[in-house]
Each structure stands twice: as structure tokens, then as C-alpha cells.
Amino acid sequence: MDTVESVLTNLRKNRIPGKCFKTSRELFGYLGSFLFPGCTAGAGDSVTLEQLGVYDYLRSGNCVFLDKYTEGITKNEKRALYLANFSADFFFSGINALSQTGKIFNLDGNGSRAAPIIYGPKKVFLLCGTNKIVPDDEAAVLRVRNTAAPMDARRLGRKTPCAKTGRCMDCAGPERICNYMTVIQGQFDENRIEVLIVEQDLGY
Ligand code: SF4
């Protein structure tokens, strides 16, 4: 069994369905079978989503996209969007590490993407390149701390030790980018969270 197949098998054991796509075109074909005119969709901050063109896809479709990147958006408006995500029809996010044991690892600074992944939106799509797949849970935590966090901290201009050194120094400062580290290892409604793997290197 190859790596992607074993991840999908173990995700299914944890009641999390998953699919693999060769291209973003295939991915959008699949998503198009879910989104309906007038539906609401929110999305977390994600380089993977940006690289795949998911934000533009949501902006150009028939859905109401709760777009946190809207130019000139105020802090209060952004907070309102974050809260609206909880009652959206769909929510999209990336993944920071996907363990072959079928568990999903994410870090979050303020919880605005981790929280709606776990509860609220009716359907959640978690998008992920094959570069996020790691052999086990320990490797997943290491990936989050020593790859995802430092690169994300640099992207966002955070003054964290990992942004400087490229490795987690277990800081506890106000700029900490990993205040929340979530592990999703199952769900009650097996149709809610769905993992969509694209056979590319995406995000970090
Ligand atoms: S604890 Fe600090 S140094 Fe470690 S990953 Fe988080 S922000 Fe970076």
C-alpha cells in the first residue's frame, strides 16, 4: 500500500473521509459538486489554499465568501467574519502535518481557523499537499514545530525564536504563533470534516 493510500485508510478508520487528486482542476471539479448558489464559505489563512487558487475560486463562484483578505477590512469586521465562519455552510483550511496514523495536526495563533475546523461550519474541507504527510504522530509534532511554525512566523513577520533559527525554542512570548496545536483524531459526524490531498508540494 502506498503512503497516500495508507493515510486515507487510517483516516477512514478515524471516521474522517479523504480523497486524493492529481491536479487542482480535479479538486475544483470535486468541490463544485458540493457548493451551491448562495451558500456561505469561510476559509482559514493558508499558503496551500493560496497556491491552489482556492481563495480566487471562492471569490469567483456563486457562493458568499467570507473573505478575510478584503481590502481595507477593519479589525472589527475581521472578527465578525471569524464569528460568521461558525455558521457557514463550508469552511476551508490547510493542514500543517498529516500523520500516516490518520491524524490531522494544525497550529494556530488566535484559534480563528482551529476553532471552526473543530465545530460550527456544516462541512469542512482540509486541503493538503503530499509534503505534509509524515510517518507518525511524533514526526507530525516535530513538523509543526520545526517546519510549519518557523516558516509561518517568517511569512507573518513574527518575532519568534523559530523565525530566527528555523527551529522551535519552546518560547512563551506574546508573538507565539503556536498558541494552539490541535490534533484531530476522529469526529461524530463522519461526513463533516473531509481531507483532500493533492499530489503536489503545497505550503509548509
Ligand atoms: S513555541 Fe515559539 S519558537 Fe516554538 S514554534 Fe511556537 S512560536 Fe516558534
UniProtKB/TrEMBL annotation:
Q: Quote the InterPro entries the UniProt record gives.
A: LUD_dom, UCP020269
Q: Which PANTHER family match?
A: LUD DOMAIN-CONTAINING PROTEIN, LUD_DOM DOMAIN-CONTAINING PROTEIN
Which one Pfam family would you cite for this protein? LUD_dom
Q: Locate the LUD domain: which residues? A: 5-198
Protein name in the entry: Lactate utilization protein
Q: Which organism is it from?
A: Breznakiella homolactica
